[in-house]
């Protein structure tokens, strides 16, 4: 799959891409600024699928097909699921003496494992999230 990605196209940036970067970065900056005042409000904002919505708007603006946008939305659903344990395990670790970086590193490894289990598990049901 990785060898089918046209990296020269992915890594070339034009004016539209700069607008996308600025709008997307603005969302992240606003959420991190809200976090200073309310961790729960920033959590709510980040839980909203802003990045997915923005990505789908950009896909639509670039005239990508409804099928590709639908595939993106469906893939996002399945790939969100393996990230959810991190949002319970990380706070537990931090509250039980783990320092930030080791806890974050452990959670990255756990999430990678959950991704792998999700991909392998869904293949058993005919859904291939990572086609070869």
Automatic annotation (TrEMBL):
Membrane-spanning ranges: 43-61, 73-94, 100-122
Keyword list, A-Z: Membrane, Transmembrane, Transmembrane helix
Top-level taxon of origin: Bacteria
Keyword Transmembrane: yes
Name assigned to this protein: DUF3147 family protein
Source species of the chain: Haloferula sargassicola
